[in-house]
Amino acid sequence: MKESITIVLSGEAGQGLQTVEEFLVESLTHETYVFSSKEVMSRVRGGNNSVEIRISNHPIQALRYTIDYLFLFNNHSLERLLPRLHSKTQIIGEDSFLTDDQKKQFNFNEVNFIEIAKQAGNRLYFNIAMFGFISGLLNSSKTFAHQTITKRFIRKGEDVVNGNITAFNLGYDLAQDSSLKLDFKPNENFKPLKVLTGNDVLSIGALAGGVNYLAAYPMSPGTTLMQLLEAKTHDFGVLVEQAEDEIAALNMVIGAWYAGARAMTTTSGGGFALMTEAVSLAGITENPAVIHVAQRPGPATGLPTRTEQADLNLVLYAGHGEFPRVIFAPGKLSSGVELMARSFHLADKYQIPVFMLSDQYWLESLAQTDDITIPRNYSKNHIIETERDYKRYAFDPSGLSPRGIPGLGKGFVKVDSDEHDEEGLLTESFDMRVRMHEKRLNKFNLMKEDLLEPSVEGNPTKKNLVIGWGSTYGVIHEIVTSNPELTHVHFEHVYPLPDSVESLLRDADKIVVIENNATGQFANLLQMTFGIKLNNRILKYNGEPFHVDELEQKLKEKAYV
């Protein structure tokens, strides 16, 4: 009996693959572990998109490369996926979707979902007929499926609900009567889990962090966070504004913090490239800012609908001059809430820009979790009520200049993008320049108490380290769980790095770093910080995330497993 099953849906943009995905995941999450991710071409219609739905009897947050069951939506949805097929892969679709030679070559099962939909009253129900067929193969609950259908279509009336339920039942019964069965048995101890995307948890975290203003210019895959927070405008008092461009967006965020708001922007690498001057403005004015950068492959437009971890350097070195910053990169789904809320806290506390660095794969995959807790201690602001002699950039014994805002108190809040004195007035004094610059840079020392250690799991000897950051958590975690000689060290607080990491690296016998980029940007950061060579790297940069079986093979080649 298999521990997991990989189901892939393949068709054109506009054919409704996402509908089948959402119904299956929402229904199956009541009964078993499930993880789903999309592979989308950059076009509104046409091309070839695919959705992978992985079902398992143990918790998962990763994909497998090989396909067990492939559902075709048209006659040109097979070719691109040929490398992922194996001898037992079952292909399901209409007779016309494969050539006679292909039918002999592969395990083909003819099912005409459009005809099933027509029997239910409308050919548009074919997606739901496929949903029913897959559910029938899995022998999953009709009750949960019917509830999911009703919830989605009730606004369109009872006739639409009943028609879709009929299509589901026809598909379900056909699968039950067929000789095609899934070689899978769910975990009997499974308890229902919440299904969320990375975008969902970041929006929850932003609200927990007290966000009340977002300015952004739409750029995928960062736009969804903007839309989710806009939907909470009335419930949570969040003002969302679409700026004329990314340059304006971050400057508006900086202005909002200056006025007392808790503000953020969301973008992708190409959009953030336009924001870098404003990042420097936040640095010298000691103004908080929270910036979400959703990574996708570059340079330029690159692969706009795919995933990569190639913007770490961009975020790490963005802005001219030297000034502190913090970079988070969530890996666990539950971490997105904590880290996003914490971003607002640290931006406010240390008066610095804080970056949330995610990527398309982590943001848009559907995953399960029961570990969502809402932080309650990150929405408190660090604003003071000013006196008449208030100095915005005072050399306070704490190392942090007390931050006032206009209108709160009797003081005049002066800020300057030039080097300035304690009052905020422009200065050409070399001595004042050095004192101000060192005050800002000293925040690196002050924030050491707030640096998060990497998570360490697996073999307690910590001799064979597999290092990852951000979205690679799920795939490395699954491999390390089944390979007891490995220790997984995962970074979600990417910068600054805690001093304790040095001894962890020096004491290891073997180290391999896993990254979704071509140059090993995080490995280079570790090398630069601790002076330890990390030449053993597994890098992927074709626009796909790592797959479990693929990464395990690469680790075998390096004699790790």
Structural key phrases:
561 residues; Pyruvate-ferredoxin Oxidoreductase, domain 3; Rossmann fold; 4 domains; seven-stranded mixed beta sheet; six-stranded mixed beta sheet; 21 helices; 35% helix; globular
Q: Tell me the domain tally.
A: 4
Radius of gyration: 26 Å
| Order of strands in the sheet with most strands | 9-8-10-11-13-12-20
Number of strands: 22
Low-confidence stretches: none
Query: What is the name of the CATH superfamily of the largest domain?
Result: Pyruvate-ferredoxin oxidoreductase, PFOR, domain III
Question: Could you please say which CATH topology of the largest domain applies here?
Answer: Pyruvate-ferredoxin Oxidoreductase, domain 3
Broad CATH class of the largest domain: Alpha Beta
Summarize it.
This protein is of the alpha/beta class and 561 residues long. Helices cover 35% and strands 20% of the residues.
Describe the structure.
This protein has 561 residues and is α/β, with parallel strands linked by helices. It has a 7-stranded mixed β-sheet, with helices on both faces. α18 links the parallel β18 and β19. α1 (17-28) runs parallel beside α4 (126-138) and α10 (246-258) packs parallel to α12. The mean pLDDT is 95.
